[in-house]
Amino acid sequence: MFRKEKNLVEDGGENYLDPTLTSGTERRGSVVAQDAVFGEITEDGPNYRAVGWKGAVVLMLKTQVGLGVLSIPEVFDILGLIPGVLCLIAIAICTSWSGYTVGKFKLRHADVYGLDDVGRKLMGPFGYQLFGIAFALFCIFVAGSGILGIATDLNALSSHGACTAIFVAVAAMAGFLLGSIQTLGKISWLAWVGIISILTSILILTIAVGVQDRPAAAPQEGPFVADWTYTTSPDAASAFAALSSIVFAYAGVPAYFNIVSEMREPRHFTRSLIWCQSIMTATYITIGVVVYYYCGSYVASPALGSAGPLLKKICYGIALPGLLVSTTMYIHFAAKYFFIRFLRGTEHLARNTKTHWVTWIGCTGSCAAIAYIIASAIPVFGGLVSLIGALLGTLICFQPMGAMWLYDNWKQERTPKWMLMLFWSLFIIISGTFLMISGTYGSVVGIIDSYNETGGSSAWTCADNSNSS
Fold first, then answer.
1. CA atoms of 409 and 403, how far apart (whole Å)
2. In the list 33, 70, 374, 406, which could disulfide-bond 19, CB 3.0-4.6 Å?
């Protein structure tokens, strides 16, 4: 499949040329590396193999920690503290295994860049279309929720200084401009800014709700005791929607394919994964528990609105770069999917030609435009987050990874370990399918209820969306 030279990586019984070890300058002019996806990477084109393992950690964290963490306290309010934490840990374990499977699959199949390539290997042309479109839609929907989060942020900072529809348009334009940066290596510095921004903001929020007398949405007169509970009895639709919000908080796993494909050394991916999942899960549990403990049912969605008016502005101000970077990355991921699909196998993919730039800007602009429409049409943050997690997050975080293990290991010796992993892979596929169906139902019901409530947000609204709770 690939030309055998001295610089080979062996994993899973398949050999492939490791482009991180091959100097193209010894072979042909300005060619600096040969990649199974991008072909010849040259000095006069973008370097698609420039992400180190630390950069991979922060890119992976930024695909996850951002919009998802802002919905965790509300999830605990719906499920109760103990069931909420247990469900979060269970989904963390499942998605961590899914992430590990991504890394192993990439090493065995160097020609895989994204989930669409996985689909082609698993189910041929149908799988290529299904997984590719699902991933692209997921990224665009996440970008839409990021645009909505930015609009909420700008409303909070300006005390609703302009029509919300204007803020949504401004957020979409900013996401398009930054998302048009060509490579993840160049975006990684933005990811550092974004992750520091969002973590600082939620840390301030956590401290603020702990020292304040009461959350912003609670009655401001008389004694106040947070009404948090260990367990609750939610209706089925609410419970499924809450689980979908947790899935969304971990649903950046398919984007790991993009990240590992642009790493200088893909074999270091597992190291990056361990750091990412550990930091992320600890953050989710800490923020979710503390904010819910002090706010109870008066927690806002997004959670940054749970503090008082002044602290809400401070938290949103600090979080703004983090929300913008989340939007940027998912517009970039969606655009990169279409870009590679259009130009793969041509000289324009890795060279700064006119065709290269017209295609790239067209992809980023189109993805940003669709994300803008989604943010304007479904301006309910919590409902949009749970809908994305249910309909698309489970579809691309659970079922494909279970199928990937079966694809690579079906012909292996039937040992007890093999049988255990077989049952685990089947469990991942079945549980993902259940969460997708039930969660989508719960999310749609929640969005409809929000529209029916008095004062609920409407499509292309000018109303202030920073005071939802």
1. 10
2. 33
Q: Tell me the average pLDDT across 246-257.
A: 88
Structure tokens at 291: 């904010």
Q: Peptide bond preceding 309: is omega within 30 degrees of 0, i.e. cis? A: no
Q: What is the DSSP letter of 51?
A: B
pLDDT at 51 over 60: yes
**DSSP code at position 411:** T
Average pLDDT over residues 410-420: 93
CA-CA distance, 73 to 425, in Å (whole number)?
A: 30
Residue 20 domain-assigned (yes or no): no
* Rounded average pLDDT over 275-303: 88
Give the C-alpha separation, 89 to 86, whole Å: 5
Would you tell me how many other CB atoms lie within 10 Å of the CB of residue 189? 12
Distance CA 277, CA 345 (A): 34
Q: Omega into 302 within 30° of 0, i.e. cis?
A: yes
- What is the identity of the amino acid at 125? P
Hey, how many other C-beta atoms are within 10 angstroms of the C-beta on 76? 29
127: number of Cβ within 10 Å: 19
- Classify residue 286: in a domain, yes or no: yes
Query: At 112, which CATH number?
Result: 1.20.1740.10
Let me know: does 48 contact 264? Beta carbons within 8 Å.
no
Collapse the DSSP code of 30 into the 3-class scheme (helix H, G, I; strand E, B; otherwise coil) and give the result. Answer: coil
Helix (H, G, I), strand (E, B) or coil at 284: helix
Average pLDDT, the chain: 83
Q: pLDDT for 55-74, tens place per residue?
A: 999 999 988 877 677 788 88
* Better pLDDT: 309 or 420: 420
Q: Is the dihedral of CA 400, 322, 238, 160 positive or negative?
A: negative
Strand partners, 33: 41
Which one, of 328, 329, 174, lies nearest residue 262 by Cα?
Answer: 329
If DSSP codes are grouped into helix, strand and coil, which group holds residue 8?
strand
Backbone angles phi, psi at 219, to 5 degrees: -55, 130
In a domain, 22, yes or no: no
DSSP string of 353-378, one letter each residue? -HHHHHHHHHHHHHHHHHHHHHHHH-
Average pLDDT over residues 285-311: 83
For residue 56, the surrounding DSSP H or E stretch is helix 53-64
In a domain, 1, yes or no: no
Range of the domain at 225: 51-452
- Report which of 176, 440, 188 is spatially closest to residue 334, judged by C-alpha positions: 176
- Looking up tokens 């301030």 gives 204
Determine the pLDDT at residue 160. 76
Count of structural domains within the chain:
1
Looking at the DSSP assignment, which residues form a beta bridge with residue 42?
31
* Euclidean distance between CA atoms 18 and 264, whole angstroms: 10
